[in-house]
Each structure stands twice: as structure tokens, then as C-alpha cells.
Task: structure prediction
Amino acid sequence: MGASAAFHLTKLGAEVCVIDRNDPGRATFAGAGIICPWLSHSRDPRYQALAFASAEYYPELMDRLIAAGETNIRYDRVGGLVIGDSETQLNPVLKRLQAYLERGIQEVGEIKVLTIGKPKELFPYLNPALAGLYLSGAARVSGEDLRLALLNAAFRVGARQLHGSADLHLAGDVVVGVRFNREIIEADTVIVAAGAWAADLCRPIGLRVEVEPQRGQILHLKVAETGTEKLPLIIPVLSEYYLLGFPDSRVVVGATRETGSGFDFRVTAGGVGEILQEALHIAPGLKNATLAEVRVGFRPMTKDGLPLLGRPASLKGLVLATGLGRYGLTVGPFAGMLVAKLVMGEMTDIDMSSFAPDRQSS
Ligand SMILES: Cc1cc2nc3c(=O)[nH]c(=O)nc-3n(C[C@H](O)[C@H](O)[C@H](O)COP(=O)(O)OP(=O)(O)OC[C@H]3O[C@@H](n4cnc5c(N)ncnc54)[C@H](O)[C@@H]3O)c2cc1C
Result:
């Protein structure tokens, strides 16, 4: 979120300083990298307006980053496979995707129904008893590569980078800068893009931010085969778990959703067990894979599932940019642009009133 805001702010001519503490559990480092909002369970039109526009913005952002000299970004439209026990079970999903296409949401791409056994031809580790629904528009991104590319592009044109912890600095009802290493760094606007830590950062100035950490554990498996980067994303219909391939013979399987975890940065036996059990049920061909890495990230969750993007009414000089929850790799790059435009007084691409940080959420 912060990297995208910084990149877009430099494009709009702002003088930018990025301060990052690089906490263990940064969500962007752990994030799987699925960009496929059309399969989300959320039907909230406010979420859809933001998430669909975010997916649409990705190719344009990639072009802008490549033009800025950033070529090391792994964003690929590898396609997605929704899997289930039968074609009939997948019918409601098919209808939903067709309705999106009829509404002109072309990013969904081409849709194909796959009879039992066919999904395994596209993702060889799968259970042969599964049927599928293929959509070509689903994409995969490495959140960490994208974060670095956005930051590098911003630094190249003069943005400053500071490593460490910042506190907000208030004068009356105006945030006039941040305290960093006992120094005051003044700013016309401070953007709090502190993910799940946003509430802690704002509490000392009396601002209540309704965002909570939700721990996600996610497994990186190493397989013997190459070409894993071409595998489609696997999204089961009956569960919340997913699989996706990355280069270097890696298959990523996720993830736990541990509400109430606090900032407990641990890999747990239960978490790993839960994911493995589910993954091996869907993809028994992964039984012999090496469990190479477990990542842990804290999703910044809000009560109503919508992000907090904008200026709180009670304070001047402050913009909140957090609460991206489960979809931050999808939405963060676009939301960073929205926030940059807001800060610079430009028209935003979509109406942001639904994301007001001090809205009353149920
Ligand atoms: C397991 C898992 C899988 C996921 N999969 C997907 C997916 O497939 N697709 C998708 O779209 N989304 C996914 N997400 C969600 C996505 O990763 C997050 O929503 C997104 O990364 C949040 O980005 P952020 O910049 O808001 O927060 P973060 O990436 O957590 O960054 C916040 C930063 O603020 C810094 N910070 C905090 N306080 C301070 C301070 N006082 N001073 C300085 N720095 C500070 C932290 O150190 C950190 O670097 C997943 C998340 C998890 C955990």
C-alpha cells in the first residue's frame, strides 16, 4: 500500500519520504499473490467497484513500471481453475462469471467448463476425480517483487527511504509530521499505510482505527518438476484453500485465517496441519513435495471487509490507507494511486466515500 502510494505520489510531483519498520509478519511478504476478484465470496458492490477496477489497473501499472525501468516483476495471467466434485456443483460460479462478462467486465477472460479429470491435465498434482471451470483472466503476482519495483521507481526519482519506526506528530488537531529517531520530519500530509499496525500507530494521538491483525500461515512446497510458473491458480469451491505455482519448482498452498491472533508471529502445528490436510486432499500429487518454507503474515482486517482509505474528519494532515484484508495484493496498487490522487487534490478514479476511515461499520 505504502509503496504504491509513494510511486504514484512521485508521478504526481510530490516530495516523498517512505518510512518502514519492516516488521516480521508484513502481509505483503506472506501474501499468496492471487489476482482474481471475480471469484470472491463478497458481493458487496462497494468492494466489487474497487476490486474489479484494481484488477483492471494491473496491466497499465505494469506498463508504467516497465517504462520506469522496473522489469523484475512477476505478474502473469496464468488463468484460474475453480474445482469441485462435479460440473453441476460449479454451475452457480459459471453463472456468476457469465453475468460479469455480460456486464462488460472483460478482465474475467475466456471461460471453459472442464469435465471430471480434465483439471488434472492443467495442474498435474490434482485429484483426478475433480471437475473444473477455467477462467483465463486470473493472474498471479509476487507481492514482494511488486513492492520493491514500486519503491525503486519512486527512489529513482528522488523519494527518500528511512528504515525504522515512526510515530505521528500532532500540533492541535493537525498531524504536522512524524517523529523518527528523535527527529521531527515535517510533512503536509502523513499517510498511514501501516497495515495491521495502523491502530497501534494512531492510538497515541487519540485516533481509533478499526483494523485488526488476522494471522495467515502459508506453505511453500518444492517439487521435482520445473515449469511450475505456468500452472493455473487452483481455487476450490467448497473450501477457502488455494494452490498456485511460482518459478523455481515452487507450489504455494494457503492459507489459515486466524481471527483474534493478535501479532503472534509463529508457525503453529495446527496451522500447518490444517493447510496440508486440505492441500493433499485436493492435490494428492504433492505428497512427496518438500515443505520448504512457511510464511506468516498479518492481514489488516476491518469489520465490514472494506478498506480504510481517506482523511479522518477529526484531524487534518492525515490520510489512512489500510484495511486491505484478504485482497490487498489485488487492491493495494490501485488503492495507492487513489490515495496519491486524494493527497494531491486530484479527482479519484472511483468514488471513495464508502471507504471513509471514520464511517460507522456494522
Ligand atoms: C497468507 C496471506 C495470503 C494472502 N494472499 C493474498 C492474495 O492471494 N491476494 C491478495 O490480493 N491479497 C492477499 N493477501 C492480503 C495482502 O497480502 C494484504 O492485504 C496486503 O499485503 C496488505 O498490505 P499493507 O501494505 O497494507 O500491509 P503490510 O504489507 O503488512 O505492510 C505494513 C508495513 O507497515 C510497517 N509499519 C507498521 N507500523 C509502522 C511504524 N510505526 N513505523 C514504520 N513502519 C511501520 C510494517 O513494518 C510493514 O512493513 C494475503 C495475506 C496473507 C497474510
